[in-house]
UniProtKB/TrEMBL annotation:
TM regions (residue ranges): none
CBS domain mapped to chain residues: 7-63, 72-133
This protein's record includes keyword Zinc: no
SUPFAM superfamilies per record: CBS-domain pair
SMART domains the UniProt entry points to: CBS
CDD domains in alphabetical order: CBS_pair_HRP1_like
Species for this entry: Stigmatella aurantiaca
Protein name: CBS domain-containing protein
Family matches, as Gene3D superfamilies: CBS-domain
One Pfam assignment: CBS
Length: 143
């Protein structure tokens, strides 16, 4: 199954130029602790509520003045393409310990997000039950 069939296309990214206060308000409105950060539709990072607390509030940065881009890490975010198989996204998420994964089109524009919940829901909705989800080769370490 392709990611485009499972992903959530209703994604509202934030700009690196917006403030942390704006980001926190967006997180609250969306009921999510994660926002994709984009210049136009190109993803430049992922911002979490944890980033705001540990990299801004704990450092006594003013969230009304501090821009999202100021606390983003340098590492490029992990992502998958909308025409990738669900198993590819599941493998990436397992390898990198991710709960959410940005989904891009082949022009590398953000088109959605996929979550562990999306993958689990698809597994439960599979016609013959969870064992029929095509996740061959997926290895997950249980702690």
């Amino acid at each position: 199954m392709k990611l485009s069939a499972v992903m959530n296309p209703d994604v509202r990214p934030i700009s690196p130029e917006q403030t942390l206060t704006e980001a926190a308000l967006r997180m609250r409105q969306q009921g999510s602790g994660l926002l994709p950060v984009c210049n136009s539709r190109k993803i430049v990072g992922l911002l979490t509520d944890r980033d705001i607390v540990f990299q801004a509030i704990a450092e006594r940065l003013d969230p009304q003045q501090t821009r999202v881009g100021e606390i983003l890490g340098d590492a490029a975010p992990c992502y998958a393409f909308e025409d990738d198989e669900l198993a590819t996204a599941a493998q990436l998420m397992a390898e990198h310990h991710l709960h959410h994964l940005p989904v891009l089109d082949r022009d590398q524009n953000l088109v959605g997000m996929v979550s562990l919940d999306d993958i689990a829901r698809e597994a439960l909705d599979a016609p013959s039950g969870p064992h029929e989800l095509p996740l061959s080769g997926l290895t997950v370490n249980h702690h």
